[in-house]
Amino acid sequence: MAGRPRVYANAAEKTRAYRERIAEQNKGMTRVYTEWYERTQTDKRRLISAVSVAQRRKDPLALSLRTRTIEVLVEDLVQYFQTGEIAPAPIITRRTKKAE
User: Fold this and answer.
1) Between vectors from CA 49 to CA 48 and to CA 52, what angle results, nearest 5°?
2) In degrees rounded to 5, what are phi and psi of residue 81?
3) Distance between CA atoms of 39 and 47, rounded to whole angstroms?
4) CA-CA distance, 1 to 9, in Å (whole number)?
5) Which residues, 6+ apart, have CB-to-CB distance to 17 below 8 Å?
6) pLDDT in tens, 48-91
7) To 10 degrees, the CA torsion angle through 10, 12, 15, 19?
């Protein structure tokens, strides 16, 4: 009984061909991902910088935003746009160890 003809002579050849296909696919993706990542990082820095400038101008919305990380800043913006309310930013205090 004749089966289907083999495409690869052995498992090593099959693995090599698979790795070549994956490497070829990733060439374009790596470039696109890198460009996207760099643009995103630039946009994050611009947003935090713009909010900081607005806070120095005493803008009420900007004063309510926390700018420690971009994730927290986005959370605050989402809350504002969903509720329409400006919540004052919490005051961050240092924690001290309790004396035992």
Assistant:
1) 85
2) -75, -25
3) 12
4) 19
5) 8
6) 999 999 999 999 888 888 888 888 888 888 888 898 887 766 65
7) -140
